[in-house]
Amino acid sequence: MKKYFQFDELGTNYRREIIGGITTFLSMAYILFVNPATLSLSSVADFPNELRMDQGAVFTATALAAAIGTLIMGIVARYPVALAPGMGLNAFFAFTVVLTYGIPWQTALSGVLVSGLFLVLLTLSGLREKIIDSIPPELKHAVGAGIGLFITFIGFQNAGIIVNDDAVLVGLGDLRNGNTLLSIFGLTITIILMVRQVKGGVFYGMVITAVVGMIFGLVPKPDKIIGEIPSLAPTFGVALGHLGDIFSLQMLVVILTFMFVDFFDTAGTLVAVANQAGLLKNNKLPRIGRALVSDSMGTVVGAILGTSSTTSYVESSAGVAAGARTGFASIITAGCFLLALFFSPLLSVITSSVTAPALIIVGVLMVSSLGHIKWDQFEIAVPAFLILITMPLTYSIATGIAIGFIFYPITMLLKGRGKEIHPILYGLSIVFLLYFIFLVN
């Protein structure tokens, strides 16, 4: 075991790997409760129940997808990187594809499955790296930051801090409302924990908020803490049964968006975590092909189980900071997710008021990439800004990506920098232009 994971070469041991693996789990455990709440659209009161995903099934799918995906990453790629259904991708799945486009969640899951299969094929063929390289870094950073703003906007809405206003579209909510005050308290506590660099600060913030909510009668108390594992029956294999429903231009755009976000989320996370762990060699990632295949397989497995795209988590850096250097830490994290399956009764205490602070903080973390954009170059600033602003304002990640990728070739050509544009970008801009012409009312 020690030889396979190169303990001696990387200067690590079982103790450091176990501590690192547990730390990574605690840092991302919030997804076990945020993902079911997001995919079931629990914060949308007037959405028909028969059109919602089953929260219990999504909880089980989330835990299993995270465990299996992380296990594959640990054993095959030997990286201390954990996987789980991605924030941003789950919001796109629920609030854009299902709520805004009116596409059934069953069909959306099929789209996730197809996107995962395409990513596997692209990785095995070597095209994935070429496509990633064709997108300028400024647009990659803008997409990540834009998703962060979108998630934060959803968090403010769920908290009741931002509400609908017919006169000016949005306005400040009633800050005297009990649930809103609970979210503000949770946000404050989470900020304190994060500033103090407490490992798993987002997770612990949710726990403290839920406990305080129960004390003041704002959050229902669970009947028990440990219970039976919720059935996967409502979601398992559904993606396979609805593959025939994905043949439309609208679903093509949805699948491309799933692929695009997963592309760069994974690439950025792997580079960041590997660099922190000292695994980069000559500015290249060893076993990058295995890592990308592992990530893509996580999405395929997750879709079949019944959840949105599974991707590598930047929270893995918390585990690396605690000492993790090898895939053995990922095995430990995977084991933690399997144990978490028995804590489904706690889903009842994870209300939108409890998850809202987590969404806002995750958004803060994601917009850190804004500093890498060359704002002094107007031809780059325009498409980057349009991506950032249109994602939350149109309530659509796909729309933000589409607008930015249409304007980038235009501004670059007008600046006389057309030779810097990769042919793949022209193809993407045409696809997104067709999206607006034929699909947007």
Automatic annotation (TrEMBL):
Q: Where are the transmembrane segments?
A: 21-45, 57-76, 83-103, 109-127, 139-163, 175-195, 202-219, 327-347, 354-373, 385-411, 423-440
Q: What is its main location?
A: membrane
Q: How does it sit in the membrane?
A: Multi-pass membrane protein
InterPro entries, per this entry? Answer: Azg-like, Azg-like_bact_archaea, NCS2
One Pfam family this sequence matches: Xan_ur_permease
UniProt entry tagged with the keyword Nucleotidyltransferase: no
List where in the cell it is found.
Answer: Cell membrane
Query: Which GO terms of the cellular component aspect does the record hold?
Result: plasma membrane
Molecular function GO terms recorded: purine nucleobase transmembrane transporter activity
Alphabetic keyword roster: Cell membrane, Membrane, Transmembrane, Transmembrane helix, Transport
Q: Which domain of life is it from?
A: Bacteria
Cell membrane in keyword set: yes
**Protein family membership:** Belongs to the nucleobase:cation symporter-2 (NCS2) (TC 2.A.40) family. Azg-like subfamily.
Q: Which PANTHER family match?
A: GUANINE_HYPOXANTHINE PERMEASE PBUG (PTHR43337:SF11), XANTHINE/URACIL PERMEASE C887.17-RELATED (PTHR43337)
Name used for this protein in its record: Guanine permease
